[in-house]
Structures are given as C-alpha cells and as structure tokens.
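Q: What would this chain look like folded?
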Amino acid sequence: MTDNTPLQGATVIGKSGLIVGLTNEKGEITSPPVSQYPLTIQYIGFKPVTIDAHTDTIALTPAEYSLSEIVVNPCERPIKRMTFYAREYASGATGSDTLQLFTEYMFEAFLVDSNTKVKGYKKKDSNLRLKNLKRYARYMNASGLDSIAKPDENDEITLLSWKDILTVPNYKITVDSSLSTTSATSNEIDSVASPASGQYQLHKRNGVLSFISDPLTQYKDHKWSPFFLKLLGLTIDVEEMLTMICYRVNDADCYSIDDFMYETYSLHILARGKVFKRIFKTDQPIEMDAYIELYPVSTTYITVDEYAEMRRDKTPLSFEVPTAVHPLSPAIT
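A: My prediction, written as structure tokens:
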C-alpha cells in the first residue's frame, strides 16, 4: 500500500481453502506450514495477493470502489429498503478431520431514520432478513476422504456458520475534525468510543474510512464464552473477533448507512461442546475459524403500503454480487 501501514485482521487462506490465520496489530502472522502454500492474503479495500513461498513483507494494492446511485424522496417514501450480499468462509479442524463451509447470502432490511416515527413500521425489520443462500461443504480426513456437498439447513455442519452476528450499521457517526483531512490518500489512526460497544480504531485510507473494533476487550482474558450456547451443548470460547465497518469518505465527516461500503467479521473459536465433538467424532477441542463479508447491493425508498407488502413477500432474492467484491481465493473456487 502507499503508506506502508500494517494491516490488522488480514485473512490468510491456505491452498486447501482453510483460514490459516489473521494478521495482528503489527500486520504479522505466524508462518503457516509449508504444506499450506500457496497462500492468498486478502483484506477488504485492497486487492488480494497470492504468494508461493515465505516472504518477510507483503504489500497490498488499494482497490477501487464505486457506490450505487440513490434516489431520495423521504417525504412520500419514509422507509428505506436495502438489499445486501454476503459471503462466509468457515472451517473446523481436529488433528485428523477438517470441515469447510462456504456460503453466499442475499439479505433484506427495512430502515427508517432514527429521529423519524413511521406508523406501521416495525423496528425489528431493521435487522437482516435472509432472502436466499448458496451453501457448499467440504469434508476431508486423514484416510484420504475429500468430498464436496450441498448441505441443507438441518445438516449439523451449518453449526460452523456465524452469519447471525451480521448487523446493519444504521446509525450516524461524526468524526472529530482533528482526525479528518482533505487528502483522499492520507492515513489517520486514533482510538475513539464505539457507538455500539467497546473501543475501535479509526483509519482513513485511500478515500475509505474504516472502524476496526475488537469486542473481546470487554471480556476477561480476552475470551467470550456465550452461556446460552452452553445450554445447547455448544460450549465455545471465542478467542479472537475483529469487526470492520467501512464508509466512503465525505467532506462533512458525518457518516450514515448512505455512505456504507462494506463490513467484515473475523473470528477464531475453540469449540469444546458435546455437539461439536459428536460432529467431528473426537474428544479433543476443535479449532474453528470464520470470516464474513457484507456489502450493500441496492437502496430504494418506499411507501408504508409498499413496505407492508414487501415484508410479507417470501420470494427469494436473485443473487447480485457487487463490483466491490474481490475475487475468491483459488482454493475456494
């Protein structure tokens, strides 16, 4: 990149399609086994890079993005219908078995301005609603099994998915003027309070404003063990979770869903529950990784009557992949 700033949270994917690690705050990662080369390094906002052998420094080139045009008529159409494309890489591994899950999603959400009351609008509709998906699973073990399948919702491998943590950033953020500059290629870094929870770092690079958050700073020993999952036999320790929300830089330094470009979630999990152990047929803890990307596809302002009709519509959305989505890792393809 142009300023040689380390990139925290870059995802490294091995030749088998497994996530083999995430870069730390210094942009570093423990060198993966030679058997995992070639490696694909990807980071939202930059073009992915594939390397065939170990190297000390890898430079990523900024990607170019464009936002779709939005026609606004809020007086007559107070509800904003947005569609989203998402994709998820997830895996679970023991000493002998590996499961991989790759899923593409189409979502829908209905939003209103936080200061606006709309009769008939239900706030829960601001959450992402699943409108379509494509899912593929890969099963590998030490005896040589390597197979691909299309699991349904009842298949236990879907427990590897973390799509339910995705949220729509439907709030406004005003950036302190001391952190802003007029240069689209400048870089500013600071820690500021998150509108949701915890702390996040603010980065301004290549005309993109990024908020990188580590929600686990709120938990003891930097580890989250959801109690409600323990009740279901799904005991897990979330040992790493990085979220990044990105906006197109504007002159006002005030950002909303209209400036939203994409968000990502990166997780590393140690699964110890009986359900996971049954799936993997092991008594050992299972190492799990997940990486999720969410992109806005379209925005339409609609009337209350149109909203009422659309929220009842069960027709699946057609898949639309935004131009901002970078190519898949060759191993995933």
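The chain has three helices and 16 strands.
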